[in-house]
Amino acid sequence: MPDAADIKLRIEAAIPGARAEVEDWTGGGDHFRATVTAPAFAGLSRIEQHRLVYGVFGGEIGGPIHALSLTTISE
Amino acid sequence: MSEQQENQIREAITRAIAENEVILFMKGTPEAPACGFSARTVGALQSLGVPFAAVDVLPDPRIRQELSALSQWPTIPQLFARGELIGGCDIVTEMYETGELAEVLGARATPESPTSPTVAAGAPLQIENRL
After folding, report:
1. Which residues of B touch A67 (CB under 8 A)?
2. I want to staple A2 with a disulfide (CB 3.0 to 4.6 A). Which of A6, B3, B23, B91 is the partner?
3. Between A74 and B109, whose confidence is greater?
4. Cβ contact (<8 Å) for B87 and A70?
5. DSSP secondary structure, A6-63, as one string
6. pLDDT score at B130
């Protein structure tokens, strides 16, 4: 089961220049909240920014990661 | 489950998105949301007074599967307006707070042009029209 630190590392490894703050929302290891700041978001719509982050986890979203609540910030 | 049934579900979803100006795919119903994220999204729409159609994805797991394949969006709820994916709970909440949601939905959704959630008999989706 992924934890908040694991999710942070995976986002930062997958998206160039990204910084992520991730918290386990419920303490149950399946609802996470992340704020991601990345230059890669520049010029993308909010939908596209979120897709980029969801894409890091593929089928795990909705599976082992029940929910990943996102705030994305372009820099 | 046959491929034909899945195609039917996908077609019904495509049609529902095309035929309803504002449509929310959610867990549960607007009266009884089955998930906090769906509840929050319904709350934002209701507080704007925007009429919207709602589809509960829970009765058949294939609805969610086909919807996510179509929309390229992994989570529920999903809000569409005029055929376009607006977002899930996070984006809708953010847009609600900045006033963008009212702009995107409210400015065009007039009471005179309610959505037409007429569903053919035997259609695999249960669509409800909501104010």
Report:
1. 37, 75
2. A6
3. A74
4. no
5. HHHHHHHHHSTT-EEEEEESSSSSSEEEEEEEEGGGTT--HHHHHHHHHHHHGGGBTT
6. 54
| CATH number for the domain running over A4-74 | 3.30.300.90
Residue B4: its pLDDT value, please? Answer: 82
Nearest residue on chain A to B77, judged by CA atoms?
Answer: A67
Q: Which of A5, A10, A3 is nearest to A53 (CA)?
A: A10
Cα(B8)–Cα(B14) distance, integer angstroms:
10
Which residue in A47, A68, A69 is closest to B87 by CB distance?
Answer: A47
- The pLDDT tens digits for A30-48 are 899 999 999 999 999 999 9
Q: Where are the domains of chain B?
A: 3-130
The interface predicted TM-score of the complex, written ipTM, equals: 0.87
Residue in B with minimal Cα distance to A58: B74
pLDDT of residue B31: 96
